[in-house]
Specification:
Distance between the termini: 42 Å
Pfam families: PQQ_2
InterPro entries: 6-blade_b-propeller_TolB-like, Ig-like_fold, PKD_dom_sf, PQQ_rpt_dom
Largest sheet: 5 strands, antiparallel
CATH class of the largest domain: Mainly Beta
Shape: elongated
Number of domains: 3
Mean pLDDT: 87
Oligomer: single chain
CATH superfamily of the largest domain: YVTN repeat-like/Quinoprotein amine dehydrogenase
Strand content: over 45%
Protein name: Pyrrolo-quinoline quinone repeat domain-containing protein
Number of helices: 2
Helix content: under 10%
Structural class: mainly beta
Radius of gyration: 31 Å
Length: 389
């Protein structure tokens, strides 16, 4: 189907004044509600996985699936966009955090188990650090070491592959989360009611903060477990966006939606004025989002919106068009996903009208010269006239 509409904006802005990357969403783990939800900037749910038993953590993977730590079921699961389980690790002791590593393994924090383990895709344990003091979070560093948050220990430690402590920060008041970014560290203190970046920035007076992350725009996303909300604050601590009314929110991450790929355009590159020709548009969305095309035919006609016949993350769309005047036109098309992310443009140049084909039988010409040689001067003038047309 084809529709003619005004072009949408490429930047979405919430009513509270927080500039989100076009199409970005927030993935939220509601522990007491037993679900993981993905919301847009207006707070509308665009995806969810319900029926979970005390989920504690969730992260969106590169393949579009979601890794969920389900403490009440003593497991970590990976689910696809339809909520189907595609991988799981069972038999864990109060898992509270899980990270998919670059090598394909999964790093899991077991709070009551007092350990952090790394398992391969078959679920086999390939590394661990035991005898920890109520660990809440773990991150694998670029140097191969592991950063571990110990809640009752009041510290964050860095351990090497052998489990030896090579660095630590102590005296923390109930630390539950740590994030490494740009050679800096963002720490969340649940009991201390604050999130801080050592010696650089902090926000205090929070109501049971459970998680925080620094966003690409420089703001900070904070989860208040006791307060039942998620807030985004600027560098001065002003709230610029929030989601309230949540049941035991314990983890959140902002998902930066990647735009679809630039479309290809196939169809006739020459034609006649006033004749409709069919063109095919093809694109893909690596995030698996539904999408459509906006098409500029290069003339005075309005922008057209063309929907794929099978919009499932990859889809082909067809549209017909005719031009009213002779000339060369450039068809331009871009792809928009359902969250507003816009691809680069694809192009196809067409010329109206096409050159008239001139097919001549040279065997006939040879026969004419042999049969009527006296007519050659006349034929020469005729051919000269034809080529000048």
């Amino acid at each position: 189907p084809v529709f003619t509409i005004a072009m949408p904006t490429s930047l979405e802005k919430s009513s509270s004044g927080s500039n989100w990357q076009s199409g970005s969403t927030t993935l939220i783990t509601e522990s007491l509600a037993g679900r993981v939800i993905e919301i847009d900037s207006s707070g509308s749910i665009v995806w969810q996985k319900t029926g979970l038993n005390v989920p504690k953590d969730a992260e969106r993977l590169g393949n579009g699936n979601t890794l969920i730590t389900e403490s009440g079921m003593s497991r970590v699961i990976e689910v696809d966009n339809g909520g189907n389980i595609t991988w799981e690790k069972n038999g864990l002791n109060d898992p509270v955090d899980a990270e998919r590593l670059g090598n394909g393994n999964t790093l899991i924090t077991e709070h009551m188990g007092k350990k952090v383990i790394e398992v391969d895709s078959a679920g086999n344990e390939v590394w661990n650090k035991t005898d920890l003091y109520a660990p809440k979070d773990a991150e694998r560093l670029d140097n191969g070491n592991t950063l571990i948050v110990e809640y009752t220990g009041g510290r964050i430690i860095e351990v090497d592959n052998s489990g030896n402590i090579v660095w630590e920060i102590t005296g923390l008041d109930g630390p539950v989360d740590v994030e490494i970014f740009d050679f800096s560290m963002l720490i969340t203190e649940y009991l201390g009611g604050r999130v801080f970046e050592g010696g650089v920035w902090e926000i205090t007076g929070l109501d049971g903060p459970a998680d925080a992350e620094r966003l690409d725009n420089g703001n900070t996303l904070i989860v208040e477990y006791t307060g039942g909300r998620i807030i985004e604050v600027d560098n001065s601590g002003n709230i610029v966006w929030e989601k309230t009314g949540l049941l035991g929110p314990i983890d959140a991450e902002r998902l930066n939606n990647e735009p679809p790929n630039a479309p290809t355009i196939d169809g006739p590159t020459n034609g006649r004025v006033g004749v409709k020709y069919e063109y095919t548009f093809n694109s893909t969305d690596d995030d698996g989002h539904d999408f459509w095309y906006r098409v500029d035919w290069g003339d005075d006609s309005p922008i057209e919106i063309v929907f794929p016949s099978n919009p499932d993350g990859s889809g082909v769309a067809k549209a017909n068009h005719s031009w009213d005047a002779k000339g060369t036109y450039v068809i331009s098309a871009s792809t928009l996903d359902i969250h507003g992310a816009v691809s680069k443009w694809g192009y196809l140049e067409v010329t109206m009208p096409k050159n008239k084909a001139f097919n001549f039988n040279f065997n006939l010409l040879s026969w004419l010269f042999e049969r009527f040689p006296q007519a050659f001067p006349i034929l020469k003038k005729v051919f000269s006239y034809i080529w000048m047309i």
